[in-house]
Amino acid sequence: MKNITLKAVVVFLFVALTGSFFAQQGRMMQGKKGQMCQEMKLSDDQLKKIQTLRIEHQEYAVDIRTEMQKNRLAIKKLMLNDNFDENELLNLSRANSDLQAKIKDSKLKMKLDVYKLLNADQKKIWKKRFLQMGKKMHRVQKAMKRGKSQKFQKRQNRS
Q: Which of 1, 6, 84, 139 is most buried when burial is the number of CB atoms within 10 A of its CB?
């Protein structure tokens, strides 16, 4: 009896967890990306290839971010010393800037690889959305700079 109950619990957990996994993947494709996929009417083959491209990019980015985190820790370790090597600090900072650029390049390359998978009608929609995203990012960056500068000014006024 215990054996049957244990098997039933295991089967139930397996079904519940796999159902949750597929539901999460479905939710991932919803929202703006999901809308764009529906608008472009991507085939199942295109969706599969796009997901593969995204996973490859994410794997690469994880490795790069790990390296950046190691550099940040090395910077913290350097700063613990009163007499730290300025050149080493600058080199670590430059390395992180280069690594950030690699992630951005990889993301753009992934987007261009997705673009190559599309037909002519899909490419028109993709271009329109791509340009809209660029405008939104520009506005966000400007707002962030304004917010940071306002915070900085408030701190300066206090001292």
A: 84
Mutual angle of helices 44-79 and 86-117, in 10-degree steps: 180
Q: Which two tokens mark 63? A: 């490795």
Residues 6+ apart with CB under 8 A from 57: 106, 107, 109, 110
For 100, residues 6+ apart whose C-beta sits below 8 A from its C-beta are 68
How far is it, in rounded angstroms, from Cα 142 to Cα 64?
27
Pull the structure tokens for residue 64: 């790069």
Global pTM?
Answer: 0.60
Q: Is 122 buried (19+), middle (13-18) or exposed (0-12) by CB count in 10 A? A: buried
Please count the residues of the chain. Answer: 159
Per-residue model confidence as pLDDT tens digits over 92-105: 999 999 999 999 99
Structure tokens of 56?
């490859």
Closest CA to 122 of 41, 31, 56: 41
What is the number of alpha carbons within 13 Å of residue 20 lying toward its C-beta? 6
Name the one residue in this structure whose structure tokens are 């957990």: 13
